[in-house]
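discrete fold record:
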Amino acid sequence: MILKTNVKLNLGLNVLRKRPDGYHDLETLFIPYFGLGDTLEIEQAPAFQISVEPCSWNPLNDLSARAYELLRRDFDLPPVRIRLEKGAPVGAGLGGGSADAAFALRGLSELFDLKLSSEQLAGYAAALGSDCPFFIYNRPMFGSGRGEILEDFDLDLSDYEIRVELPQGISVSTREAYAGLTPRENAETAPAGLPLREALKHPVEEWKDLVVNDFETSVFAIYPELASLKASFYERGAVYAAMSGSGSAVFGLWKR
């Protein structure tokens, strides 16, 4: 079985508060972006094997391997061979690793005829990462909680072209992004932008000053070239531009 994954973009990302469990409550609108992704191959094998190319981490710790382990424990799955060819960048705020996990769950369910519903698969995905459940559904979804609580969101961007750019040599860790961020409930001044649900009801051409990614403040302070890249999108005619997730990818919407 060969699966082609995709990545996600965040239309707005508001960090509301830090939770007692150490995570943060947030709100964001996830949308799929199919211009980048990985190739994931899964097949039965005499013993479990995994290879990831290129890879700077232990492949056994890859989220796709952890996805297999979750289902193996619950369904006594036989061994498989996983081959993962990375095309989506790491540390770009695009959720490439989360996509691998979700697609592995979906692929394993199909390969072994587990008949797991999307809701069941999303439950497994939530154990692997906050944005993993989104990739089970892979359509515009409003995320809350850690990002794992998902609701369908009616959004039509067919009149817009989406472009994504990846700054050379910049990889932003989530920990680094959170380090300089003040959650909205703790801010001394009123946070920028409207509440996200309200902001997204406005025409896309009005999103520039309404739909805000809170991580931009802390990440742009460390990497001013990302702020310059976002500004250049507007100079080139984008009607909306933003950093995705905790960065470093920047994307823009152009009217067709």
The longest strand covers residues 7-18. The helical segments are 63-75, 96-111, 118-126, 132-137, 174-179, 196-200, 215-222, 224-235.
